[in-house]
Amino acid sequence: MTKLAVALLLTWGLALTPALVLAQKLAIVDGADIIFNSAEGKRVQENIKKKYEELGKPLQQKQQTLAKELADAEKQAAVMKEDARKRKEQEFTKKVEDLRKQEMDAQKQIAQYEEKEKAPLFQKLERAVKEVAQENKVEVILDKRSSGVLYMDSKLDLTDKVRTKFGK
Fold first, then answer.
1. How many CB atoms lie within 10 A of CB 107?
2. What does pTM read for this prediction?
3. Each residue of 64-121: pLDDT tens digit?
4. CATH class (in words) of the domain with range 25-167
């Protein structure tokens, strides 16, 4: 009889385990929406755009200059001696390589600037999420955009509550 009781108890316990796991509170937050639709987020995006334009404008001018030089060199190539043409090609290749290095450096600067500008927003979001989670006794909060959520009940979405905390 005790073996049967243990088996029933074990079966009952296994059957309840998924229900207990599901009983834990889970919620969803759209962090990107909160950050990038906030006044601070829009200001940061504008600053990043200005930095991109600041670094990109000189590079665009150099690209245009190189394109003009290439067009001129192609016109002159027919009448140039082989040595002179090869020298021009080498000079042009070096200029293109230098431009590529400058573009890579600019991209690195923009990425660093973007990271520096966004860091305080992400820290503020983290604090707001933590407060809302504690207030609502939520054990797990997933980000709506990066969690791979295919379906969720709208009552799990705490985005508006976090947005309120974020705005304070």
1. 14
2. 0.69
3. 998 998 888 888 877 888 888 888 889 989 999 999 999 999 999 999 999 999 999 9
4. alpha beta
